[in-house]
From TrEMBL:
PROSITE patterns: HTH_TETR_2. Residues 156-177, 204-230 are annotated as: Disordered. Residues 28-47 bind DNA. Residues 5-65 form the HTH tetR-type domain. It holds the Pfam family TetR_N. The lineage of its organism: Bacteria, Bacillati, Actinomycetota, Actinomycetes, Kitasatosporales. Keywords: DNA-binding, Transcription, Transcription regulation. The keyword Transcription regulation applies. It comes from Streptomyces exfoliatus. This is TetR/AcrR family transcriptional regulator.
Length: 230
């Protein structure tokens, strides 16, 4: 029996769930209607055709990444928190993020996180080109890390695996090192360690924080120019 009450948000929630779990190809109007126990005509009434539905999902994904809020007592802690939240958001919705990219809205999607990082860079005393480099470095770190994670997860089973290669090795008499490399990778801890080290270097290594541009930089106005910036 078709349900009598249905909202646009419920349709988008169900559609997003299908895409997250099975990819965009699994999203058909008939399958979505079945998931919601409603008629196909009801889906069309709420969101239009499939292309309009995909556009709505893209817009919602862009909006979702705009909800990232820094947390922590210091600019450094808050910058790390933004990086962690961005990584989590990208990993939770890879198919939706791919749809955003295909529609040429990648820069728009990353803009809220950029703005949050700019705010914290300013709070830490960075200005101009130094602040721009900090924002870009963190953004590239997050995106690059997520891509590496995805490639590792989708790679065929390795034989011998990394753990097997290091098992029994002494790594130059450094037994603890060999044992650590033979253990499974804690990707969350590795990410946080790398981002913290990057943030510490960015905030502590800016010479004078004068904001003077170096070749290839254009100062404050250049924060929005780059592969993942607007």
């Amino acid at each position: 029996m078709a349900r009598s009450a249905l909202t646009r948000d419920e349709v988008l929630d169900a559609a997003a769930s299908l895409v997250r779990e099975h990819g965009p190809d699994a999203l058909t109007m008939r399958r979505l209607a079945a998931e919601l126990s409603t008629a196909v005509t009801s889906i069309y009434w709420h969101v239009g055709n499939r292309e309009s539905l995909l556009d709505a999902l893209v817009a919602r994904t862009v909006a979702d990444l705009g909800t990232i809020r820094p947390r922590g007592a210091t600019p450094a802690e808050r910058m790390v928190s933004v990086a962690r939240a961005l990584r989590r958001a990208l990993r939770e919705r890879p198919h939706l993020v791919a749809m955003v990219h295909e529609r040429g809205l990648t820069e728009r999607m990353f803009l809220p996180a950029q703005r949050a990082l700019v705010h914290e860079a300013h709070a830490a005393g960075l200005r101009g080109a130094h602040a721009a480099r900090a924002v870009r470095a963190l953004q590239f770190q997050v995106v690059g890390y997520v891509l590496v994670e995805r490639n590792r997860e989708r790679a065929p089973v390795q034989s011998p695996a990394e753990e097997e290669l290091w098992r029994g090795e002494d790594a130059g008499s450094d037994g603890p090192l060999a044992r650590a490399l033979a253990a499974p990778v804690d990707t969350e801890r590795l990410f946080v360690d790398s981002v913290r080290a990057l943030v510490d270097g960015l905030l502590g290594g800016a010479p004078g924080n004068t904001g003077e541009a170096t070749p290839g930089d254009t100062g404050d106005g250049d924060v929005g120019r780059g592969p993942y910036s607007q």
